[in-house]
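Why TonB-dependent receptor? Reviewers of the renewal asked for a concrete example.
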Amino acid sequence: MSTRSVLSRALYSTSLAALVAYSGAAFADAGEAEDEIVVTAQRRTESLQEVAISASVLSGDKLAEKGVQGIYALQYAAPALTMADYGSANVLNIRGVGRSAVDIELPSGVVLYRDGVPTFPGYFQNEPYYDIEAIEVLRGPQGTFVGKSAAGGAIFIRTASPDLDGFSGKIEGEYGNYNQFGATAVVNAPLSDTLGVRVAYRHFERNDILGNSLTGDFTGEPGRPNLDSIRLGVLWEPTDQFTSELRLDLSDLDFGGNLTSSYNYPLYDYVQNARFIYRDRSARVVGKMGYEFENGLQVTSVSGYQTTETVNNFDRNGATPAYDEFRSAGTFTLYSQEFNLISPDDADHPLSYVLGVFYQRTDTIIEDYRHEGFNFYLAQDGFPYLGLETPYKKKEDEWSVFADAKYRFSEQFSAELGIRYTNYITSNDTNIVLGDGLSNPTIPFFVGMQKLNESDVDGKFTLTYSPTSAHNFFASVARAHITGGFNIVGGAEFDKSIVYSYEAGLKSSWMDDHVRTQLAAYYQTLSQYQAQFASPTLGGQNILQNADGKSKIYGFEASGQANFGNLNIDAALSFIESELGDFPDVVSPFLMAPDNVISISGAKTPFSPKIAVNIGASYNIDFGSFTVTPRVDLSHQAKQLGALFDAPQTRLPKRTLLNAGVRFSMNNVYVDVWGTNLTDERYVAGIQDLGSIWYPGPPRQYGVKVGVNF
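Here is what the prediction returned.
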């Protein structure tokens, strides 16, 4: 399809969404305007329509309406975000920048924060969404406030805080096909005028496997998740100036194991050969304190501690009958501390600023082959043919200082400059051994201590012009980087990748704020794009390397929300085009030697569909105290690649998913009848190892949810 054809369809989709939104005024009472949507990622509470950032913000209610119960489904509600789930590993890309493959050494270019603290980048993001206040998806480099490896963007998850206004809560239960059962309970209790607690619990299980048939020499319960999470929040506000909050999250997430298929095999008829286990046990503690002086100046502190123990065993060659199993186990620990000095930001203060200091320490330990860490097996009762002789240990330290200053020249015009200095030190201790699979591996494959000390400066400059209170233009230039590192196999170093982004956008409110729109266009250049290829000098083992020359990614996004009384509509569209640099002398798995060593130039970024569209609508039908609210959501992603090689094994076909539901509510009681992927589209959600592992997307699911708010 030509670019002109794609653009025509994109413009048609946007025009159609706008036409539907505006036509609502013809048959609906205007009612109240849209509720104010805020962004907190820049350490302030700012209006989404006014802040010069391309972002999507979804409240907890909106997530529930759209059926977003975890990070995988978030891509169908936020433009320019794509997600491929590989069990404990998550490949996130925003505007084509993020992660091109699954590998413990490959940094993620999208950073996730939970309740103000960073989480493990690229891993362990499968905690269920429950009792969520809002999720912010920030598009484009976020190097000033987020730091290293936020070159693609950042996601901020905010869970609900304790409320001192009164006792409240929720109890909810759900049941669906595949014997799916879920339960959520939330209790909010103010213990005094200054002290409050909030407890939330979520359980989810699905007893039957997600597919048509499952055969093979396997053990465990693949495809049968059994998840438990609990959260405790304590809020103390002894004075109007001082506030403190403590959060504790505990999760025991037994996913059973990932069912996988392969190219040229039925997508939902699985032949699996592995001792399946996939379980993450984690704890996270977040402490926040803030003090506001009489002049409006604020001092804040955010502390975080997180630990995760994981075990993940799966069939390494998907549906292929031959036995090839990967087993892994490890412990991941992260500490973080941030201090901020935040000035007032209002009409009386033309100059406002945020100053910050940040520290993060991450420790990774992957067990040796004797303790099931990083092992490859060709027989269930045999020995690993590749494994760790001693535990793999990785230590990462990051120190950062940052400053962001904004100056209002007038009510209409302002400029903002942000800058961040980061020092990053990492070390790997690796000892990999080879064997024949018949006895313990003993042949040294790679042994060594690796260390990297890297410093960099990121930043962003933005101009904002607001000719009226309803229209805000902005233009920005930003720089961010993704850290470099080492290959576990072979030990070769790969360089950091640097992204420059040039963006212009417009945010507008129409019809007395009943319609809001957001438009943005961007152009990005990347140097040293990081990707994974088989090495011709290391027996075909995968290694990470950088592209020669410049890579470029460009596109635009359009989104809007409309509220006309009982009618609510939201729509979003993203378009992306890319051309990566050169990768000389890489091994193509799709060609025979000696013609399999080739060069790649101008490839497309993986997991980045050229067109992505989502549109949703709901309508409240009132019968006195009884309300019926039908809702429908449609999302579409064009075809995309799961690797830099364009071959049938790496192509993810286009997908169009339809979700719908009806809520029946009376006073504080509600019943939701819901369905996802109602057309039962069978599609590939992710590709790993160049097509040897295909991850099927969820088929049609439906059920009922009953809840009461008190």
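The first strand starts at residue 38 and ends at 39. This is the kind of structural detail the renewal will allow us to pursue systematically.
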